[in-house]
Structure formats: C-alpha cells, structure tokens
Amino acid sequence: MNSAGARSAEGLSARAQVQWSVRWENELQLADHAELAEFFRKSYGPTGAFNAQPFEGNRSWAGARPEVRVIGHDARGVAAHVGLLRRFIKIGGVELLVAELGLYAVRPDLEGLGISHSMRVMYPVLQQLGVPFGFGTVRPALEKHLTRLVERHGLATLMSGIRVRSTHPDVYPNLSPIRSEDVVVVVFPVGCSISEWPAGTIIDRNGPEL
Questions:
Q1: What is the tens place of the pLDDT at every residue in 156-193?
Q2: What CATH number does the domain containing 166 carry?
Q3: pTM of the model as a whole
Q4: Is position 209 within any domain?
Q5: What are the DSSP calls for 5-74, one per residue?
Q6: What is the number of other CB atoms lying within 10 angstroms of the CB of residue 137?
Q7: What pLDDT score does 14 carry?
Q8: 122's torsion region: left (phi>0), alpha (psi -120 to 50) or beta?
Q9: What is the largest CA-CA distance in the chain?
Q10: Which keywords label this protein (predicted)?
Q11: Residue 115 falls within a domain, yes or no?
C-alpha cells in the first residue's frame, strides 16, 4: 500500500474508533466542562489566541450557552463537538424558530472526521426537537470546504450575501454591543422544506452567537 493509501486507511480507522454521545447541558459535570474547555483551547488556539481566550478555566462555551451537545470521544479524549441552542431569529421581519448549531470543532489530528459525521448524530436530535430548521453560520473562507462536506450529502443548503447581527456576550466600554458580520448561512431543513425559509438578506439573532 502506498503512503497515501496508508494515511487513508489510518484515517478510516481513527474515525471508526470515535464514539458519539448526545449530552444535555444539565448532565455535564465540572470535569466535563474542564475537558471540553481544554479541547476548545487546543482546537481554536492555532487560529489565534483571541479565539481560544473565551475557553479559559473551565468555560466550555464562547457566547451563548448550548442546551444540547454532540460529543465524540476516542482513546485520547474529546475528538469532536457541536452544540445546539433553540432560539427565535428574525429574517426580514419574520420571526423563525431555529436550532442554532455552533461550537463546532474537531481535534487537529482528526481533521478528516468532517462535520458530516457529527451531523449524522445531531440530525436525529433536530428531528426529535421538532424544529423547522437547523441554522448556523461560517466564515466565507470556509464556504468551499463546507460545500464539499455538507451539500454533497444533501444535509444542508448554503446561503451567501447575508448579514447576521448578534450581540457581544459581554459589554465593553467604547465598543458597540452589536456585532454585524457578512457570513455564509447554513440551513438544515428539518420540519419544513427549504422553500419555506423566509427571504431576506439580514438576520437578527437578538443574542450572542452560539
């Protein structure tokens, strides 16, 4: 087997060893939060110290706090994570219940794990909660990568040219409490079809990003 084939086989083996669990926030103990906080610092730290800063100590969330988490574990500890929070967002004056998905991360040595693996576990949760849509945002630089991983499996639709307004999780002197970003919106149809997603180029979270 050539080196590329060997790496592929190793990747498949590593993914097969990841065990997934669905955890409600009230089920997590202090040790769980400490383990997740360390995982997020290591996952987000390479993209900049500022991105790892919210997870100092035992804080396992950055902005809004999730109510449900899908967590992947293997022999080395936390392998991947995605959080969920039900909330109402406003699109073009229409209020819409969504399950916001965020706090996505995968351990650097398992980058090939992909969001599609965690979403296979999360999607039944979305169905059980009876929400019309799953909703998330990503930076434009990740659009091409996400297109391959998500749209290829028919899980979601990507929407660009949309501005999303959120509140900062904390209030700082001389800084607007509102943050406005041009992002790629990811919509997972659950109880409704994508044709029922409201038209609009501005989305208000009316709260901090998950």
A1: 888 989 999 999 888 878 888 999 999 999 999 999 99
A2: 3.40.630.30
A3: 0.85
A4: no
A5: HHHHHHHHHHHHT-EEEEEEGGG--HHHHHHHHHHHHHHHGGG-HHHHGGG-TT---SSSPPSEEEEEEE
A6: 21
A7: 53
A8: alpha
A9: 60
A10: Acyltransferase, Cytoplasm, Nodulation, Transferase
A11: yes
